[in-house]
Amino acid sequence: MPVANRSARRRTCIGCRERASKTDLLRVVLSESVVIPDFHQRHHGRGAYLHRERGCLDSALQRQAFGRALRASGPVSFVQVEQAIPGNSSTTNLGSQSGDEMSTQ
C-alpha cells in the first residue's frame, strides 16, 4: 500500500470546523498552560489546527475550542497565537478576566 503524500493530509480547523490540508493550517500546541504556534509542526504533544485568519481565531476563542482540542485542565493563555495571526486583537469582546486567558470547562 503506498504512503500518502504528507502535504495531502487533512485536518479540521478548530475555529470554522472546515477540513483543509495541513499545510494550509497553523498547528498549535499546549506548553505549560500556554498555547503556542508550531510553525514547523515539530513540537511534541497534542496539537490542534487553525486557519491563519482572524475570523477562525475569533470563533475558536468564543467556542473555547483551544482548551477542548488540546485537553487543557485549566485556564490557557493564547497571546502567542494572537500575535501569529494578523488582525485586530480578539480578546476585547470575550469577557475574560485578564484579557489573555480563557478557562476551560
Textual characterization of the structure:
By secondary structure, the chain is an alpha+beta fold. The chain has one domain: YlxR-like (Hypothetical Cytosolic Protein, Chain: A). It has 3 helices and 7 strands, in the order βββββααβαβ. Strands 4-3-5 form a 3-stranded antiparallel beta sheet. Strands 1-2 form a two-stranded antiparallel ribbon. It has a two-stranded antiparallel ribbon with strand order 6-7. A hairpin with a 2-residue loop joins strand 3 and strand 4. It is globular, with a radius of gyration of 14 Å. The C terminus is likely disordered.
Summarize this, please?
The chain has 105 residues and is α+β, with helices and mostly antiparallel strands. It has helices at residues 54-62, 65-69, 79-84; strands at 10-12, 19-21, 25-31, 34-38, 47-51, 76-77, 101-102. The protein has a single domain (6-102), classed as 2-Layer Sandwich (Hypothetical Cytosolic Protein, Chain: A).
Compressed to H and E, one letter per element, the order equals EEEEEHHEHE
Number of domains: 1
Please tell me the overall pLDDT: 82
Helix fraction bin? 10-25%
Instruction: Characterize the overall form.
Output: globular
CATH-derived architecture = 2-Layer Sandwich
Structural class: alpha+beta
Low-confidence stretches: 90-105
What's the CATH topology name? Hypothetical Cytosolic Protein, Chain: A
What's the main sheet like? Answer: 3 strands, antiparallel
Number of strands: 7
Distance N to C terminus: 42 Å
- The CATH homologous superfamily: YlxR-like
Radius of gyration: 14 Å
Q: Numbering strands along the chain, what is their spatial order in the largest sheet?
A: 4-3-5
Indicate the CATH class. Alpha Beta
**Percent in strands:** 25-35%
User: What is the number of helical segments per DSSP (H or I, 4+ residues)?
Assistant: 3
